[in-house]
Inverse folding.
């Protein structure tokens, strides 16, 4: 990269230095007249699992999309491993490789097999050879429980299996952080468990994760910290026990009351 181009550090697996891996400072985002984020501050430490809850339209997806630069914030800053990624000239592809994201919709290429889908960005973005990309793809697909399905096309896989391919695709890039945006919301109930299981395993393995979900059991079980967003701000945050059992804000109480 040329002069003045922001670099993304590649020392993501370094020992915990106590510094946050992600630092979001006074983040604002508007779409024309619609103000969606009104000053969000959030730090995420290496290895931490942060679950974000909140009603529809509260800005959860927009926040995640600002972290991997699918959206450009209208104000504030996002730092990733000491680099301000919201600065001009940031290498967006480098950020997206290091900050993996899994969406509600899996967005797999229908004409490619599971393996082909997991290989693609490795070759295009990381410039891995076909052989290396295939090897990593099989490893990651095995990790998400799809060793027997590497040669299947998306149409031959269940929704839960397709979502696990999408997770393997993100993991194949060796991300330092994983963002999950309602990764199980589009799935039939019986398929949700396998995907949550993969996410839980990842968390246990020390992956730094920000997870937007309505799965309260998962949040209780896996989150180090729970954040409740409403109206484009963080209303409340704490441990799962604090937020679920002793919510301070009326808005949090109201939300939890409805979802239970
Ligand atoms: P959540 O994920 O919490 O449901 P979102 O971040 O998706 O909330 O959306 C917050 C608000 O921003 C909503 O009112 C939504 O309609 C609006 N919004 C999101 N994306 C766009 C966009 N690309 N253009 C205009 N408005 C948007
Ligand atoms: Mg959303």
């Amino acid at each position: 990269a040329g002069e003045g181009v922001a670099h993304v550090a590649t020392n993501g697996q370094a020992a915990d230095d106590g510094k946050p891996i992600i630092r979001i400072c006074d983040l604002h985002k508007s779409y024309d007249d619609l103000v969606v984020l009104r000053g969000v501050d959030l730090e995420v430490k290496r290895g931490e699992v942060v679950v974000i809850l909140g009603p529809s339209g509260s800005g959860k997806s927009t926040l995640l999309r600002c972290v991997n630069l699918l959206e450009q914030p209208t104000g504030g800053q996002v730092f990733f491993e000491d680099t301000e990624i919201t600065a001009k000239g940031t290498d967006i592809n480098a950020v997206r490789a290091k900050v993996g994201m899994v969406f509600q919709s899996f967005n797999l290429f229908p004409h490619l097999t599971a393996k082909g889908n997991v290989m693609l960005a490795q070759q295009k973005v990381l410039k891995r050879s076909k052989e290396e990309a295939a090897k990593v793809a099989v490893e990651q697909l095995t990790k998400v429980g799809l060793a027997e399905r590497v040669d299947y096309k998306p149409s031959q896989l269940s929704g839960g299996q397709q979502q696990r391919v999408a997770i393997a695709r993100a993991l194949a890039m060796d991300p330092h952080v994983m963002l999950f945006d309602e990764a199980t919301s589009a799935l039939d109930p019986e398929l949700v468990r396998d995907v949550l299981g993969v996410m839980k395993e990842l968390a246990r393995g020390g992956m730094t994760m920000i997870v937007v979900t309505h799965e309260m059991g998962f949040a209780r079980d896996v989150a180090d910290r729970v954040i409740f967003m409403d109206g484009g701000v963080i209303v409340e945050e704490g441990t799962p026990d604090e937020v679920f059992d002793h919510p301070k804000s009326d808005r949090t109480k109201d939300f939890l009351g409805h979802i239970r």
Residues 19 and 45 are 7 Å apart (CA to CA). Residues 189-204 form the longest helix (16 residues).
